[in-house]
Amino acid sequence: MKQQITMLFFLFTLVASAQTGFDLNSLVPEEPAIRKGVLDNGLTYYIRHNEEPKNRASFYIIQNVGALLEEDNQDGLAHFLEHMAFNGTEHFEGKGILNTLEKHGVAFGRNINAYTAFNETVYNLSEVPTTHEGLVDTCLLILHDWSDFLLLQEDEIDLERGVISEEWRTRRNANFRMLRQWLPVVLKDSKWAERDIIGDTTVIKYHDPATLRQFYHDWYRTDLQAIAVVGDIDVDEIEQKVKTLFSTIEPIQNPKERPTFKVPDHEETYYVLATDDEATQSQINIYILDENKDGQKKTYADLRDSYITSLYNAMASMRIQELLQKGTPPFVSGRTGRGGLVRGYDAYSISVTANTNEEAKALEAIMIETERIKTHGFGEGELERAKTNLLTNMENRFKERDKISNDRYAREYAQNYLVKEPVPGIETEYQFAREVIPTITVDEISAKAKEWIKTENRAIVITGPTDAEHLSEEEAKSIIAKVEAMEIDPYEDTVSGESLISEELEGAEIVDTKKLEDFDAVEWTLANNVKVIYRHADYEKDNVSLLAFSKGGASLWCDEYVPSADMTPTFMNAYGVGDFDAIALQKMLTGKKVSLSPTIGSLTEGFNGSTTPKDFETMMQLTYLYFEQPRFDEEAHNALMSRYMAFVANMEKDPAKIMQDSMSFIMADYHPRVRPMNTEYLQDVKFEEIQQIYHDRIQDAGDFTFFIVGNIDEETAKTMAQKYLGSLADSEREENWKDHGIRSPEGLTKKVISVPLTTPKANVNVRYENDMDYTQESILAIKVLEGILDLRFTETVREDEGGTYGVGIGSGVSQYPVSKGSMRILFDCDPVRADELKSIIYREIDRVVAEGPSAIDFDKTIKNLLKDREQAREHNSFWLSSLYNYYFNGINSADPANYEEILEKMSRQDIQKFAADFFDDADLIDVVFVPSSL
């Protein structure tokens, strides 16, 4: 039998190869644009010229080293070592790396970062300007130091113990704690069962620095390292620099063997119940493990297999979505499909989120859908739609190939180095996909279900609240056996309709045209009073965006209608549009890359949409339908409502939700229009009210302003606007939003609120608000102040004190309904240190007010804002948001006089004065959430 199967596969391979012109047995080649090499010391390098973004480059060092390589006395030190890479190297002592790069606008966190996983540690320096002489060399030197020249000084190690302990505290939520209960069962008797990456707090706090240095010596070595440099650079020049600089690193003598890790096979089905007091959802996950080809070079046959998996998952997902649209769904959400789990292993996962105390019903329902696929497979219609959508997405990637970011390429090269993921380039892959995807048959994909869904290497995982009813091992296995013995009918595929709009549309003439010279755009006014602003933008070549707004929003409805108004856009997306319910619409849009959603905010209503040039008319058709033929589907409404009800049923147990709701109440001074998402809120969301609100808000197109920005020519945009937007009804209303007086409390509001917390931590919130003129000067000044304080808080609260994993800070200026500036600061910490660390926040604010920012912090912040602005200007989205801002807020933010010139003229004294004016007499909210046990 084995010989027969092998011969059949051989014959199939020959046939498929002949059909496609690709030899499926040959290795997938690496894209010619990649310059790849291996130095004598074993270090691998990837270099590529790319201009997304222009005048920028990203620098990565990929260490084939992670938590699985730790000994028990090193538990957590792979991650600890990642932190230490930013705390002193041979050429950059202390915070030298951060200080050097931040002076050039390269920000810690967003541009300078790293991650540690079970099997790898990857560092990145992203969006580094390449126009500054010597900065590229500096980044190469940083990678060089990260390879073999960390200082690992004892005082720096001791300072970082606190930061990592606080990261441990911040990450210990219900999902993480349950993961640590179930992962050791799914990956039983493997090294994965023993490690959790962040590690043991005893090791973090008390390990001997020599233990960390030993881990570094053993594993950070050139034969386990690769670097990737991608960006607007000269490849030949960089390659020579890499060879010169990195070849001097000596390879480790008598290196330890780098082990690979296995999960033992098992015939029995494992079971584990993982619960937590703070868990809010009951979930059932069945994992069926299979070894994959990580670490092996891939052939075209492997690439073809990956498409089979993608098609399988897409079709299975569509069936689950369809099930959730009907009647009373048997679960909140579900999935059945194949994907990666850990390095070396894929898993077929059958996952379902159950309604409260209905795990049996949920498991049976998801198993029936899984068994339906296994027994009957998929249909031809399903497969053709999935193929079309997959090829459409690949076509979009191909057309946007010159907009693939430096970081995306670098991450691809990291996977190539770590697990030998192929990197053929989008040109080769798209050509291959176009030829091979049509050869994939429905029988071929359907057979995968029988191959993947089996009893070997299977584990049943149930997670949820401690006080909920959960399936026992016997009950779960009994349900699976029951479904396997059922007679299950095949899936019935239905497709309705041939076109979105059947009637002829009259359209409307353009009655006024106005050039917008500052934006290189044009404004058209149609005969029905619809205003359309068009700008051609082709930085993203396969993209066209649509945005629309009209004043009014939920503010024009009284308090009791707020829940229905807030939820109207969500439910409208579930209803479908015109003659098509949501599933039929999705099928109707097969092969089209288009999205459009109505929006209703507190002050405005409108639309957000995006598409490709070839599908632009489809987006315009949908816009017409959402105005003139909205659909209200009570069955879909009830189905989605039941899922929402199940979702919020236990949310009161989630400390993050409790804190978020509390802050919302406090910041709005307990205004009745501000309500938490809970059962009572959802009970006030009424189907009839949604119809009323939608019909009231999404009508009178003459009160709407539409923006069309993207790679669509002016004549086409004009024609489509006249036809579809010109056919919209105009009721000649004149509306504006209504101010309901939602304001922050005046003066000082100070509270300490107790919250049930399994992992003791304090959550500190400080929020300032003050009257502020809505000007571009104010908008930029508060962003500069935010950036400066971010640097100060990172240096003091995180680095000097080791008091938190990070201080979050955000600011903004709003014009409507009243002109206000605000700033919010928040962080987690040890409850014992909350007051002490909060006092540092106030101290640093007072210092900026009294002394002004330091020249270094001011310069870093200005450079970062200018760098980000330079990158943003290229993109289509920049022009869309700039036009919207101009029409809604009255400011031309695209004008250099309103951005670059303001920042370039700004001084430290300006920020000092701004800070003094803002913080002086500002309304202040000071709230600390602490564990109830304290």
Outline the structure in words.
The protein has 934 residues and is an alpha+beta fold. The strands form 4 sheets. The protein has a 7-stranded mixed beta sheet, sandwiched between helices. A 6-stranded mixed beta sheet has the order 1-2-6-3-5-4, with helices on both faces. The longest helix is centred in the middle third of the chain and has 25 residues, at 300-324. Mean pLDDT is 96; it is low at 1-18.
Radius of gyration: 29 Å
The tally of helices reads: 30
Beta-strand percentage range: 15-25%
Helix proportion range: 40-55%
**C-alpha end-to-end distance:** 68 Å
Shape: globular
Oligomer classification = single chain
| Low-confidence segments | 1-18
Average pLDDT, rounded to a whole number, is 96
Q: Strands of the largest sheet, in order across it? A: 12-13-14-18-15-17-16
Alpha-beta classification: alpha+beta
**Largest beta-sheet characterization:** 7 strands, mixed
Number of strands: 23
Summarize the structure.
The chain is of the alpha+beta class and 934 residues long. It has 30 helices and 23 strands.
List the topology elements.
Elements: H1 2-20, E1 35-38, E2 44-49, E3 56-63, H2 77-84, H3 96-102, E4 112-116, E5 121-129, H4 135-148, H5 154-171, H6 174-186, H7 201-206, H8 209-219, E6 225-231, H9 235-246, E7 270-276, E8 282-291, H10 300-324, E9 333-342, E10 345-354, H11 359-376, H12 380-399, H13 406-419, H14 426-436, H15 442-452, E11 458-465, H16 473-484, E12 510-516, E13 521-526, E14 531-536, E15 544-551, H17 562-575, H18 582-588, E16 594-600, E17 604-611, H19 616-628, H20 634-648, H21 655-667, H22 679-683, H23 687-697, E18 705-710, H24 714-725, E19 748-755, E20 762-771, H25 776-800, E21 808-814, E22 820-829, H26 834-851, H27 855-872, H28 876-889, H29 900-905, H30 908-919, E23 923-931
Parallel strand pairs: 2-6, 7-11, 14-18, 19-23
Antiparallel strand pairs: 1-2, 3-5, 3-6, 4-5, 8-10, 8-11, 9-10, 12-13, 13-14, 15-17, 15-18, 16-17, 20-22, 20-23, 21-22
Helix pairs in contact: 4-9, 10-12, 10-15, 11-15, 11-16, 12-14, 17-23, 19-24, 25-26, 25-27, 25-30, 26-30
